[in-house]
Amino acid sequence: MSEKITAADAIRLLDAHEAAAVDVREPDEFAVGHIPGAKLLPLGQVLSRAAEVLPDKNAVWLVYCRTGRRSADAVRKLESLGYTRLYDLGGILSWPYEIEGDFEGHF
């Protein structure tokens, strides 16, 4: 079962290397800006590529997208594949911490 996680709780897990971020947006969106170290797994590829991109089904994965709609869908799909420690981080638009990428002040 998954649950929502706040940005503050997520950054603590990321900084402690106890979780990894998973961006389920498209590659062009990811290139514009993403959470440092995030793995890219576009929503449309979750069912076909999750085992390749996220090999540990028991690791803590923090799933996010742009606004939170795709992340919720991705979490449901990952749960159906047997992932056990998922958190829906929502959208990067509400992420107050560092973002890396080729953004020019827009998302």
UniProtKB/TrEMBL annotation:
InterPro entries linked: GlpE_sulfurtransferase, Rhodanese-like_dom, Rhodanese-like_dom_sf, Thiosulphate_STrfase_CS
Domain of life, per lineage: Bacteria
CDD domains noted in UniProt: RHOD (cd00158)
Every Rhodanese domain range: 15-101
Pfam families: Rhodanese
Any one GO molecular-function label of the UniProt entry: thiosulfate-cyanide sulfurtransferase activity
Protein name: Rhodanese-like domain-containing protein
Organism of origin: Faecalibacterium langellae
